Amino acid sequence: MKEELPELxxxxxxxxxxxxxxxxxxALNSKSKYxxxxxxxxxxxxxxxxxxxxxxxxxxxxxxxxxxxxxIELFTGPKADLALIKGQIQIDHPSLRRLTNEPAExxxxxxxxxxxAALTCSSVMPEYLxxxxxxxxxxxxxxxxxxxxxxxxxxMGDLEVTNIKPKHAYDYLDKVLAENPERxxxx
Length: 187
Hints:
With 187 residues, the protein is mainly alpha-helical. It has 8 helices and 3 strands, in the order H-H-H-H-E-E-H-E-H-H-H.
């Protein structure tokens, strides 16, 4: 389908007659292993309104369940206006509107939920230190947990909590041992 994009761009952006557009579309479709219906469905699911709908749904579900905000990538797909034409979602472009006499109702789905700032090590540190203070009975253990948490932040940086992986723990230990080679591996 990617190889068809330049030709489709010429069809949409050009000043071809309605008959020429139909002929070229038929020629493109005859060479493709995908039907126009397949292409239309695939194209609609890569549009910004679909992305923002799912983004809003996932963020809202996480909030309602008290979970961390899911990591959602920025939309990088095509920025095309959409319209509802004969009950179907279509790209709203003057060239495509010429193919039908049906009314076109523009579709918009901007993000409705504003995500909160990502949780980082420094943003959860006060709550963690409060929990250590409250739930750790031994003073020596409290001091160690507080020191290690602050040391992790200093050595590893202010990472987003959702991005921390087991590899970060190994990297942290490697850095601690590099700074203190005489320290035991048991620490």
